[in-house]
Amino acid sequence: MRVLLTGGAGYIGSHTALVLLEHGHEVVVLDDFSNSSLEAVRRVEELSGKSVPVVEADLADRAASERALEDIEFDSVIHLAGLKSVGESVAQPTRYYRVNIDATLVLLDVLRERGITNFVFSSSATVYGVPQSVPIDEQHPVGDGITNPYGRSKFIIEEIIRDTQSAWPELGATLLRYFNPVGAHTSGRIGEDPSGIPNNLMPFIAQVAVGKRERLSVFGDTYATPDGTGVRDYIHVMDLAEGHVAALEHNRPGIAVYNLGSGTGSSVLEVVREFERASGQPVPFVIEAPRAGDVGEVVADPTLANTTLDWRTTRSLADACRDSWNWQSSNPEGYAG
Ligand code: WQD
Is the CB of 124 under 6 A from ligand 1? Predict the structure, then answer.
């Protein structure tokens, strides 16, 4: 297929682009480069040996996007473009709703005008809010107890996609609810390159290990978990990328929802220890107060994706720490280095 990959220069996007190309698909990247680098796309071309056309546009700007896509041919879409920092969304709610929702509204209109019915959307486990129980399957309620505008924007977009599919039965829309993406391609040529202070655990640990940050703040150690620190389902970004290809190739008219996770939980301290083993570097940390909006345990039940998509994670937390360290130590300043 010829896939329009929005947000294709980002962390998930660059890895998804590479796996799509390796599976024989063609990729066109649309990105506004507000939180990503064209260098990432160039390295995907280097790794794949294939060219990747790039369209620079702010998808939330309808006129600019329609102009930018005017001469671009594609037959399917994987929609990753959007703002994704939980903390930032609390401080800038209207920006998060406008960018994330407007971009999707523009894209859905473009799809309908062109009769493109294969649509995969990057959703998030945050739509489950505070889990009633773990592991979480796709039947778990969504929308209640979401603690931030980022997660709520993802939930609202899922509802917009459902309503659009009701009005356009030919549309095949797959909603992929990510758990915690980590790691990098084994080459160390592409990886996670957060701008500013990393919000997420793994990139922060990587920056401590490489000496860019002094120490890790562990947000709380009094949760009802084995060692008291937060437990999450860390999924290697290459497994996540492969999940997108499986969803794209399996898409059918209707709405499909899948949790993309490993089904295994790891605590903050377990990640720290694993990263020290992988890097051979110390990761000093200090226990601090819990972070507002955090919950103790979030782990996926990935059974539906395992069975329906014939997809499952094959890489471990140790693999992710090894690959994250390889990327970080080879690119201490990310793509700008
Ligand atoms: C993981 C664990 C923290 C940083 C986020 C967002 C969303 C989603 C996944 C896409 C928690 C602890 C973290 C630090 C810490 N992605 N932590 N010190 O909050 O589970 O989910 O990423 O939708 O972006 O929901 O991920 O990596 O921030 O936190 O102790 O400096 O690490 O308390 O237990 P989170 P995270």
Answer: yes
